[in-house]
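Assemble and predict.
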Amino acid sequence: MLSNKFTINDFNKKYPDDDACIAEIFNKKFGSLKECPECKKPFKYYKVNNRKCYACQFCANQIYPLANTIFHKSDTPIRLWFYAIFLFSASKNGVSAKELERQLGVTYKTAWRIAKQIRMLFEENGKQLDNTAEADETYIGGKKRGGKRGRGAENKTPVIGIVERQGSVIAQVTQHTKSSVIKPFIKNHLKIGANLMTDEYKSYGTMTEYNHQKVNHGARQWVNGLAYTNTIEGFWSQLKRSIDGTYHAVSPKYLQQYVNEFAWRYNNRFYKSVFHFLVANI
Ligand SMILES: [Zn+2]
């Protein structure tokens, strides 16, 4: 599980005000520059008072470090944004907009927007797996009771996923779970020739690009040699518990964002300072 060594005391010490937060972003984005991009003299920029910008000591060229960040054009104090990121980093299951509204003292609308922007930090693009991987699908949302469960359940949103044993997960919200979606998803994310484990669901067919082994859940078979899908099933149940516990319900439109957040938490579960990892992505 996530172990966040960065405490609220550390946070308050390191980020006492907006300027400290802006300086953090400025240093992350421009700290390694050796010379002013405008006048080419040594890089000596100072913070302009009461403005979210820095200026060159020689030519007065201005740099706005918050441009192209998740804070761009926000009226909310940057320190509150940082605090919101801290809350996300300190939480195991995510933070609802309602919770942010309460903790930050902002309107629900603002809290919702902040949460949505922060979730963008959890996107992981272009990930590829190359070890033994398990692929599976699940269904999220819809009616809690009654109706069909599992594949084909009504009002539920399908999510397909692939996880490397002892490694990373990639999960994607989809329209359906036919092989026209599932097979390209697997090929995009798992190196050809790797070991692929699935159950007997027909959409997987037999993928000859892989060492594809199956477990027959229909026949109440859960492990067949190396073939089992317990890792991805564990991820699904964690994801569902988190959505039930923290968000209660997630509309299909935003489900991908939540899925990204949980996948990110899973993939960075051994990382020591989640907060700084997130800030580095701003
Ligand atoms: Zn300059």
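The chain is about 40% helix and 15% strand.
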